[in-house]
Amino acid sequence: MTDTQQQSLIGGFHAVMSALEKQRALECIWLASGRRDGRAEALRQAAGARGVAIASADMSALDAMLPEVRHQGCIAQLALAREQRESDLPQLLAQAERPWVLALDQVQDPHNLGACLRSAAAAGVTAVIAPRKRAAGLTAAVHKVAAGAAERVAFVPVTNLTRAIARLQEEGFWAVGLDGGAERSLYDEALPERLVLVAGGEEKGIRELTARQCDALVSIPMAGDVESLNVSVATGVALFEARRQRQAVITT
Questions:
Q1: Is the distance from CB of 109 to CB of 139 less than 8 angstroms?
Q2: Which end of the chain is more exposed for a tag (fewer CB within 10 A), N or C?
């Protein structure tokens, strides 16, 4: 078993049942040989309803698959979502009723990318774009942090982020970048319907070239002497402010 395959494993009845209930894509479920108790039967029924195959395995084999996890004789392998092609982005946006985009400028930590994907999916973002180079991709670690979000929001690596934003602007999108040094507050900005929200990487934030491409730069007001937020936290704050404004448009 490769490192990627092992990282895509989840163990324990609660974790596997939760994945089934949330309709996460599973490749296979392994149950300890001879398990016929109520929890095992409930899992078999749930897996059967979803069309997920169940295989039997000795406890020693399951221990080898997840040696540091209390798997209780139950392990499942997640089917990892795939990155979308850059050429598919126009169609992805055209199919959405109210498309909007999150652009991540060189976010390199898989945990931050996973958290950003989770926030993007929860906020209803259509697609997340990021540079193909010098940025995290859809690894098993990202999927684990995203907790299923990578299967609900399209992740599109692009060759050149600035050019990708420019093409979106040509299609009527408005790019708003998060910049801790911006004078205008996020909460004072009327965010557009066709929005590209741009968030920077862990160390330096949005690159200068990317910032120049944005139509507006905004900051998140801070209390006390806190200078900045983690990129995934800042992204989550901005995404849900954008969602609040989008919902307000519907209700007025």
A1: no
A2: C
